[in-house]
Amino acid sequence: MKTHSISIVGIGYVGLCTAIAFASRGFKVLASDIDKNKVALINKGKAPIHEPNINEQLQKVVKNKHLKCILNRQEAVLNTDITFITVGTPSKPDGSINIQYIKKAAEEIGEALSKKDTYHLVVVKSTVVPGTSEKIVKPTLEKHSRKHCGKDFGLCVNPEFLREGSALQDTLHPDRVIIGEYDKKSGVTLQALYRDFYGEKTPPIIRTNPPTAELTKYSSNAFLATKISFMNTIANVCEKIPSVDVTTIAKGMGLDRRIGQLFLNAGLGYGGSCFPKDVKALIAYSKNLGCNPELLQAVENVNETQPYKAIQLCKSFLGNLEGKKIAILGLAFKPDTDDMREAKSIPIINQLLKEGAKITAYDPAAIPNAKSIFKNKIRYVSSSVECLREADCCILITEWEEFKRLKPENFISRMRNPIVIDGRRIYDPREFSRKLKYVAIGLGSKQIQIEPDEGVWINPALAVNVIVEDKGMLLLVKRRFEPFKGLWSLPGGYVEYGETVENAAKREIKEECSLDIEPSRIVGIYSNPNRHPWKHVIAVCYAAHVVGGEIKAGSQEENAKFFKINNIPNRLAFDHAKMIRDYTNR
Ligand code: NAD
Predict the structure, then answer these.
(1) What is the number of structural domains in the chain?
(2) 315 shares a domain with 299
(3) Which of 60, 193, 260, 408 has its CA 20 to 30 A from that of 251?
(4) How far apart are the C-alpha atoms of 237 and 231, rounded to whole Å?
(5) Are residues 432 and 413 in the same domain?
(6) Whether residue 25 is found in the same domain as residue 137
(7) 242 and 323 belong to one structural domain
(8) Distance 194 CA to ligand 1 centre (A)
């Protein structure tokens, strides 16, 4: 029989996991919430949140009566001797935290304490800025109980560090326990509870004062957010350097014990109910103290802009997004949760909709929550197979395990245009970029390699389509040399290593076509400068410029139209996809 009985006020993520964890180790737990539906669900053994194994664990503790959920907060307090406050602390518009739920909970607990004649410990587990427990919670409890903190009841701050997606596991096996005690007796009582709970496996316990404990929580989350924004900054640099991959950089950095391997994954930014809110709150709190939290501000800015990288990459393939079918894999802010709070799918989908794209989305757990955000503006499907069907581009937003199992063939066979934007770096770039159009956060494109790795040709297959027009005659060059032998391309569209662009244009017309002419005009048409190696785009523009030509930028469709208008047989139109495949398979 455990010595303490526990009440939990606020049975959301943190409250429910805390309740199940204590109940699973034999403690009597009375949980309470203002939400009738949650209370009813929990008593039926159904978790209102999605977490691995949570329903099984919940059913066990409800069945053996170690956990009961009630609406009456006072009853919960009166029948237990330690109360954890686990209500939400959302952001206000200025980023600071809204403590209305904390205040209300403290009032209710205070009322209950006024009716109690034995010692009671109140533990603030919600994330609150330094000073909240001593300046808000303590006086509220004292006012409503008409008792003294440190004498009639105790008060501790005990921040929670669980991660959604592994919340129960983290609650049962934390790295450390931080106790910010108002007085010694409070600290000793809470430490004894945790010793009883964890037994031999008790993690390191740090006992300190309440504001230090409160700030430890914010500092931890802000530091983790900084690691993520830092890697996203590096990822953006990587994308500009041929063949550089941020995942290898992260591995190399992570092996340094001073840095560590976790939280170095570049991606579309962090979301969820904690990091964005906690970074904002720490910024607001620091400013209020007259500090200038420049670094935190930068962390937040990087995180705000990072999701739009997905749109940029999408447009680099598709150009205008009006009417394009985009498949979204993953909506939740991270895998193994249905939580959509601050999920990066939200700004990405909103922007895609703004640009006229048609969205089909699939997530293994978050669709019910996503529906309340996107309503019927997007189509929801129940599998990745359905999601990819006929899509022009796929954006992977959440790294669910089941998405990791998808192969290039799954995309190729279902999509109209197999383009994959890997927002979370879950696919092997060697495998994917050989078989389809694959771009990923932090992956420097191989196609913009400046130094040729073999021979003298610099990826001419990707060269933009340029047509040399001379006295009404349109010239295209059929390539004579491997590896592009037999492909139609443009004169001057690629350059021998070390050669000037002007010479390249002339040489190719002469050598490749055996024509002795000086082109009077070059009409350059290229599909999209983002999609093609910049060097070739520049080469074409420059070649056109030196011979007094004219440059026209356009999409692949426009390119095809140009061929049609000018009566060029279809066979002359380049199959870009094939050329890219040929080149990358080399
Ligand atoms: P949540 O929104 O999931 O749950 C809060 C619950 O409190 C809700 O069920 C709400 O109905 C209930 N509530 C509000 N007022 C109440 C009252 N007066 N009495 C009883 N219940 C009341 O929140 P959460 O995600 O569990 O977060 C709780 C706190 O823990 C926050 O401060 C958060 O920052 C912090 N935290 C969250 C996580 C996480 O991953 N979710 C991790 C660590 C810390």
Answers:
(1) 4
(2) no
(3) 408
(4) 10
(5) yes
(6) yes
(7) no
(8) 21
Same domain, 153 and 288: no
The closest residue, in CA terms, to atom 10 on ligand 1 is 10
Q: pLDDT class for 463, splitting at 50, 70, 90?
A: very low
Query: Ligand 1: distance of its center to the CA of 10 in Å?
Result: 6
- Closest Cα to atom 42, ligand 1: which residue? 162
Determine the average pLDDT of the residues in 6-31: 97
pLDDT of residue 509: 59
Res 472: pLDDT: 31
Centroid of ligand 1 to alpha carbon of 502 (angstroms): 66
For residue 465, pLDDT over 70 is answered with no
Active site residue 394: no
Catalytically annotated residue among 69, 156, 274, 541: 274
Domain of residue 290 covers: 218-304
User: Given its phi and psi angles, is residue 229 left (phi above 0), alpha (psi -120 to 50 degrees) or beta?
Assistant: alpha
Pairing of strands 379-380, 358-362: parallel
127 Cα: distance to centroid of ligand 1 (angstroms): 9
Contact 270, 250 (CB under 8 A): no
* pLDDT value, residue 83: 98
Q: Which long-range contacts (CB under 8 A, 24 or more apart) does 70-75 make?
A: 70/30, 70/31, 70/32, 70/39, 71/32, 71/33, 71/34, 71/36, 71/39, 72/32, 73/9, 73/32, 73/105, 73/108, 73/109, 73/112, 74/108, 74/111, 74/112, 74/115, 75/30, 75/32, 75/112
Report yes or no on 575 lying in a domain. yes
At which of 391, 415, 447 does a domain end? 447
Closest by alpha carbon to 12, among 138, 130, 128, 167?
A: 167
- Band of residue 417 on the pLDDT scale cut at 50, 70, 90: confident
In a domain, 90, yes or no: yes
Whether residue 213 lies inside any domain: the answer is no
Mean pLDDT of the 7-13 span:
96
Distance CA 473, CA 467 (A): 10
Same domain? 441 vs 500: no
Name the more confident of 6 and 494: 6
What single-letter amino acid sits at 578? K
User: In ligand 1, which atom is closest to the CA atom of 97?
Assistant: 32
For residue 509, is it within any domain?
yes
Pocket of ligand 1 (CB under 6 A): 9-15, 32-35, 38, 73, 86-89, 101, 104-105, 108, 126-127, 160, 162, 164, 273-274
Same domain, 104 and 50: yes
First to last CA, the chain: 70
Does 222 lie in the same domain as 175?
no
Read off the pLDDT of residues 64-81 as tens digits, 9 standing for 90 and up: 999 999 999 999 999 999
Picking from 411, 427, 447, the residue at the C-terminal end of a domain is: 447
How would you classify the pairing of strands 521-526 and 466-470? Answer: antiparallel
The confidence band for 436, taking pLDDT boundaries of 50, 70 and 90, is confident
pLDDT over threshold 60, residue 478: no
Residues 455 and 469: beta-carbon distance below 8 Å? no
Nearest CA to ligand 1 atom 15: 101
